[in-house]
């Protein structure tokens, strides 16, 4: 089984209740990579027998550090309308809630469509770029992604040379390769390195507080991507008083916007 599918494995213990766990392949500096926690929360709703439609939005609030080990998930459809379904999902360890999520699923209908956002320009093909190989001291989770940077790579060393911006443009996909689905898209949406590392090239204690991902792709678009790399771009808008934001977009090689993501991150120097 693919490491990501192992991490996504949830056992139903009661209606709407699931047992899961962190996975060593997605370990971070402290606890698990937040993208897998977000994907597990979404997966609890995806596996629920009452699920209708496909995800269009996921917001995850990380209430406390997730510890390595078992995680209990509870997913509840709080309202089902004609075309949308609203979910509340919790992740707990012991008696404490460690993460809370809301998700919106929808029955997509054929309508007029257009994209005003523009994908990264002048991106070399993925095959023309070298894969970033995590260096000593890096956590396990970056090894689970094939990242190929055209701009804004993770610094080789923290030399404290401040950069003019924090933008990164890259190609990314699961490693080993795996067909893209909504759970893996949710995880990849958190695979951007913290923007403060790119901007300041300085070590800082960081932690994501809240993250929202909007799924612009439907299942047919994801099936069309398959195991190919997706184009990714990220930047920060503001750093102030211990918190910064970062925004990202994920595009197919053909220029279809698959997802956009926004998060606010705590930092301490």
Summarize the structure in short.
By secondary structure, this protein is mainly beta.
The computed structural class is mainly beta
Provide a count of the helices.
Answer: 5
Mean pLDDT: 96
Helix content percent band:
10-25%
Order of helices and strands: HEEHEEEEEEHHEHEEEE
Global geometry = globular
Task: Please tally the β strands and state the result.
Answer: 13
The main β sheet shows up as: 13 strands, antiparallel
Low-pLDDT segments, ≥5 res: none
Strand content bin: 35-45%
Oligomer: single chain
Query: How far do the termini sit from each other?
Result: 39 Å
Radius of gyration: 18 Å
Protein model, in words:
With 269 residues, the chain is mainly beta. Helix content is 14%, strand content 39%. It is built from 5 helices and 13 strands. Strands 1, 2, 3, 4, 5, 6, 7, 8, 9, 10, 11, 12 and 13 form a 13-stranded antiparallel beta sheet that branches. A hairpin with a 3-residue loop joins strand 4 and strand 5 (84-93). The model has no long low-confidence stretch (mean pLDDT 96).
């Amino acid at each position: 089984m693919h490491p990501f599918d192992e991490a996504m494995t949830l056992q139903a213990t009661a209606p709407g209740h699931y047992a899961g766990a962190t996975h060593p392949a997605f370990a971070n500096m402290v606890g698990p990579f937040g993208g897998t926690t977000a994907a597990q929360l979404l997966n609890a709703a995806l596996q629920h027998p009452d699920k209708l439609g496909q995800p269009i939005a996921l917001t995850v609030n990380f209430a406390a550090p997730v510890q390595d080990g078992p995680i209990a998930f509870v997913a509840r459809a709080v309202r089902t309308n004609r075309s949308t379904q609203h979910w509340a999902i919790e992740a707990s360890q012991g008696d404490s809630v460690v993460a809370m999520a809301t998700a919106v699923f929808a029955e997509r209908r054929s309508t007029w469509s257009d994209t005003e956002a523009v994908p990264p320009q002048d991106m070399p093909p993925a095959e023309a770029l070298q894969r970033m190989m995590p260096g000593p001291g890096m956590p396990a989770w970056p090894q689970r992604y094939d990242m190929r940077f055209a701009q804004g790579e993770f610094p080789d060393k923290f030399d404290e040379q401040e950069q003019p911006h924090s933008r990164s443009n890259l190609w990314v996909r699961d490693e080993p390769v795996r067909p893209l689905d909504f759970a893996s898209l949710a995880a990849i949406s958190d695979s951007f390195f913290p923007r403060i590392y790119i901007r300041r090239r300085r070590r800082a204690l960081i932690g994501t507080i809240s993250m929202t991902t909007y799924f612009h792709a439907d299942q047919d678009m994801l099936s069309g991507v398959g195991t190919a790399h997706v184009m990714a771009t990220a930047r920060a808008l503001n750093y102030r008083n211990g918190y910064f934001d970062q925004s990202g977009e994920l595009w197919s090689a053909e220029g279809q916007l698959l997802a956009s993501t926004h998060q606010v991150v705590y930092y301490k120097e």
